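Board notes (copied after class):
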Amino acid sequence: MKLRVERHRLEAGYTMGRLYVDGRLFCDTLEDRVRDLDKEEKVPGRTAIPAGTYRVEFNWSPKFGRNLPRLLDVPRFEGILIHPGNTADDSAGCILVGRATDAGRLTESRDTSDRLNVLIEDARRKNEPVTIEIVQP
């Protein structure tokens, strides 16, 4: 399974994007601010991960009390999940999924996360590798 986040709105306080699953639009995404980590300092819990391609595991999150997709080997970041949330304040560097209703805000996030988790869990059960590519303009 190939996930792809296409970032399209890079603002001072948040980043909006679209998540595609195997080439088909699945939902909107919300992340923290994108920073050029070669020129700016990383602000822990307030910085989006670098663009790139990462392997995705599906495992237990003690914070959320359930299995969630976890991105592996993200340079200078640890514990990056794809999970529900409504604003960049809920992100802490992770990728939030849902439906964009206003600038910098998602709704239907828990339902969207649950639907994505089913797809990822099915792929893992079939021993399909899961990757995510993050791209930006």
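Comment from the instructor: The two ends are 23 Å apart (CA to CA). The chain has a mean pLDDT of 96.
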